[in-house]
Design brief:
- There is one protein chain.
- By secondary structure, the chain is an alpha+beta fold.
- Helices cover 28% and strands 20% of the residues.
- A hairpin with a 3-residue loop joins strand 9 and strand 10.
- The protein binds a DNA duplex (13 and 13 nucleotides) through helix 6.
- It comes from Cellulomonas fimi (strain ATCC 484 / DSM 20113 / JCM 1341 / CCUG 24087 / LMG 16345 / NBRC 15513 / NCIMB 8980 / NCTC 7547 / NRS-133).
- InterPro entries: FPG_cat (IPR012319), FPG_N (IPR035937), H2TH_FPG (IPR015886), Ribosomal_uS13-like_H2TH (IPR010979), Znf_DNA_glyclase/AP_lyase (IPR000214).
Length: 308
Amino acid sequence: MPEGHTVHRIARQLRRDFVGHRIAVTSPQGRFAAGAERLDGRELVGVEAVGKQLFATFDGGDVLRVHLGLYGAWDFHGVVSPIVDGQVAVGSMGAPRLRRAVRMGEGEHELRGGADAPVFPPEPVGAVRVRLATTQSVADLRGPTACEVLDPVAAQAVVDRLGPDPASTDDLDAAQEVVVQRVTSRTVAVGQLLMDQSVVAGIGNIYRAELLFRARLDPHTPGRRVPPDVVRALWRDWVVLLDDGIRVGAMITREDLDAEGRAQALADPRQRHWVYGRAGLPCRVCGTPVIVEEMATRKLYHCPVCQR
DNA sequence: CAACCATGAGGAT
DNA sequence: TCCTCCTGGTTGT
């Protein structure tokens, strides 16, 4: 369920507390026993996120590739350092219902073993596919759709299949034109193209719905019928939303909220979005009931009046 | 308890 | 278009 912003935050957390350390790698659940044994005791030398994929490189070049899919999450225990200035760090990232959040105050570096287990390291809870551990910090991965060890060439091949990700690209303008080309050359609905990770990486079902609403664009519009300037606006908006999501740690997509409204939306997910998850509720702009339909097996929310 | 659901994606048909 | 995998929270009987 995590979209791109979550994976970038996870990459930051791993860089902050794990890169530069020798890592004890285990698979409490057992389903990653061989991979864990291969990586165990090596130094983590770098972590990158591209789209929804995470690449953790160990000394010697092996890359741990993780994709959280719908259910995956990382839980962090022990020292969980702040990853964004002026903000709390959250001890768990991924599928929201999995959050056994350990919230830590600004600037706080604290040794603790989780909310209900004041020992370190804590016993693994549930089906932990991989545990990465330093002497001070633990990262538990559960429920990933992909978790494998790749050599650098294979890892790069995965990256090469992905479209641009604003948070892993240094040339946003060049990336923008790649997206323009990949959208406007297709007859597939733009609502599907935004979810296609080879077109643009990191967008999921929530950001898809919200980007289209913010652009007031009908999700059914064929890619080739979307004017290039509208694709550019979508891309620039994705740049903004992703950056905000990485900093805030939540998908607050309503640009009409003031600081207080954003604070309330952070506490109440029902206030975060224009249309996502609001089937039958009045559009926040025109009052028309929000429509939900299936598009390529995923729920698509949109306003039939504002988006055309 | 079971059934259903979720911010995902690959592969078979 | 369907099936499968992965985990766990919520809802219903």
